[in-house]
Amino acid sequence: MPLLTQPIPDESDYSLVASLDNVRNLSTILKAIHFREHATCFATKNGIKVTVENAKCVQANAFIQAGIFQEFTVQEESVTFRINLTVLLDCLSIFGSSPTPGTLTALRMCYQGYGYPLMLFLEEGGVVTVCKINTQEPEETLDFDFCSTNVINKIILQSEGLREAFSELDMTSEVLQITMSPDKPYFRLSTFGNAGSSHLDYPKDSDLMESFQCTQTQVNRYKISLLKPSTKALVLSCKVSIRTDNRGFLSLQYMIRNEDGQICFVEYYCCPDEEVPESES
Amino acid sequence: MKFRAKIVDAACLNHFTRVSTMIAKLAKTCTLRISPDKLNFVLSDKVASGGVSMWCELEQANFFSEFQMEGVSAENNEIYLELTSENLSRALKTAQNARALKVKLTNKHFPCLTVSIELLSVSSSSRVVTHDIPVKVIPRRLWRDLQEPTVPAADVSIYLPVLKTMKSVVEKMKNISNHLIIEANLNGELNLRIETELVSVTTHFKDLGNPPPASGHASQDHDPERMTEVHVDVRKLLQFLAGQQGNPAKATCNIVSNKMVHFDLLHEDVSLQYFIPALS
Questions:
Q1: Distance separating alpha carbons of residues B23 and B32, to the nearest angstrom
Q2: Residue of chain A whose alpha carbon sits nearest to that of B200
Q3: Contact B32/B81 with Cβ under 8 angstroms?
Q4: How far, in Å, are A207, A251, B125 from residue A203 at the CA level?
Q5: Mean pLDDT, chain A, whole residue set
Q6: In this model, does residue A281 exceed pLDDT 60?
Q7: When you count CB atoms within 10 A of the terminal residue's CB, does the N or C end of chain A come out lower?
């Protein structure tokens, strides 16, 4: 492979080396969390986790397991850096964003360690692109402390069931209200916009409902502007798991099948909107 | 001054439509130069507006079944018309699958290029669509700004890679920087490069081949590995690439170190030359 002929330092000099036959298996997942300019990457021997946050209220994580890569080595226990995600995505899709049948872009990604740039070698049809993206000081990411033992309600839906609802959300509404309950209306999405309120109910026995485990009625509101970006992950996914914990925190887990049929996960955490006293509104 | 011409062959008509679409993508306004044998679409931007120039040439005999023209005078048997490229391409779009197309220089309160399209119809009655495209007749004293540009002696000439790949690369590079470096050598290698504080990206094309050097040219004794570079405005390069449909029969890139890049393309029987000046 022509990529290997690139003059690169000795393999062991790198704290992270990853190669991929089809770059879209990485770029598609990263696009699903691209709602802010910067991302933090954590690599361990299990794979890479890329995190994007906004307003200290929402966090998106994309997991790309080591198995997705054809080669994946991490020299240290964990490797962390912050990177401009917009630039990274432009580089990864340098040979075009839409797939061309019969051509794949191969990727080799190397990172020497703290203070070094992230090197990308991309190859398609004998043409090689070398990118050197400067990395930044990693920032502390939020810990939502979302623990499965505290989960009150959990629903797994086929994504198509939520796709239309999310693409048609009334964006004049400040919040999206999610009702999850063991009794009617079971699962309800509500908005309160300029043109009135709207409620969308999913019956418990719907074909779209893969699993329904609600133990207690919970009604929580989330800023619609924070949830809207998750639509990017939703459109790529085949299933979505919606969970809320005892504090009303929301976890959305999207299961995404890549072009090679492997499964990746993208996860969104969002904290509930605080109740605004009547007098202030 | 007279001009009237007719296309009846469907393939010629489609080809002429494609040329006009390409011109519309490359230049907002252009000059149409009409001479007894040739048609030229000319762009010669002032340095202030970027300094890009274009010279597109086609043999009238390859397109038109009838072609009559009478220039300004017998010695200057040419006509120069300034027009908005898109008006012409939009008019010609209605000519797809038409039976015939006529182009005529008319004067309807102001000078116009009248394009009449005879459309096919199921019944025997024929339908004709007429477009009057306003033009400005360019006076003779301004002609000398619109002559075929002299191709400067290039430091490196190289065949271009597949334009579609080049276009997607330049499109992404444009998102990152507005300053692009084109470099090439006599060993068939061409690089596109951008460099910003945050990132550097280089795309390497190789085994492209170099056209045989013009005899007596100085560049022969130059080290084949040595790169000659030129810095250009990414948007201008992208505009040129976005205007290309399909792959040309021949595409050459000539680099004059730190001065300009010249693209020389041959699409069937239409030749296109495009000059982008270097950024200082």
A1: 11
A2: A132
A3: yes
A4: 9, 21, 61
A5: 90
A6: no
A7: C
Starting at the earlier edge strand, list the strands of the sheet with B79-84.
B136-137, B79-84, B29-34, B38-44, B53-59, B270-277, B260-267, B250-256, B156-159
A90·B197 Cβ contact <8 A: no
Min Cα separation B241/chain A (Å): 14
* Peptide bond connecting A185 to the previous residue in cis, omega within 30 degrees of 0: yes
Give the residue from B190, B202, B204 with the most A CB atoms within 10 Å of its CB, the best one to mutate.
B204
Angstrom distance (rounded) from CA B25 to CA B243: 5
pLDDT at A275 over 70: no
Instruction: Give the containing element (helix H, strand E) for B56.
Output: strand B53-59
**DSSP, res A136:** B
Give the percent of chain A with pLDDT over 70: 94
Q: Does this model's pTM top 0.90? A: no
Q: What is the DSSP letter of B22?
A: H
Q: How is B167-205 classified by DSSP, letter by letter? A: HHHHHHHHHH-SEEEEEE-TTS-EEEEEE-SSEEEEEEE
Could you tell me if A131 lies within 8 Å of chain B, comparing CB atoms?
yes
pLDDT confidence band for A1 (50 / 70 / 90): very low
Domains and CATH numbers, chain A: 14-134 (3.70.10.10), 149-268 (3.70.10.10)
Query: How does residue B94 score in pLDDT terms, banded at 50, 70 and 90?
Result: confident
- Is residue A186 a contact partner of residue A203, using CB atoms and an 8 Å limit? yes
Question: What architecture is domain B156-277?
Answer: Box (3.70)
Q: How far is CA B275 from the centre of its chain?
A: 10
Examine the predicted complex and report whether its ipTM is higher than 0.90: no
Ranges in chain B annotated CATH 3.70.10.10: 2-146, 156-277
Which of A96, A97, A127 is closest, CB to CB, to B204? A127
B200/A90 CB distance under 8 A: no
pLDDT digit string (tens) for A62-99? 999 999 999 999 998 999 999 999 999 999 999 987 77
The distance of B225 to chain A (nearest Cα, Å) reads 17
- The CATH classification number of B2-146 equals 3.70.10.10
The DSSP annotation for B70-104 comes to E-SSSSS--EEEEEEHHHHHHHHHTTTT-SEEEEE
Residue A99 near chain B (CB below 8 Å): no
Mean pLDDT of B58-70: 94
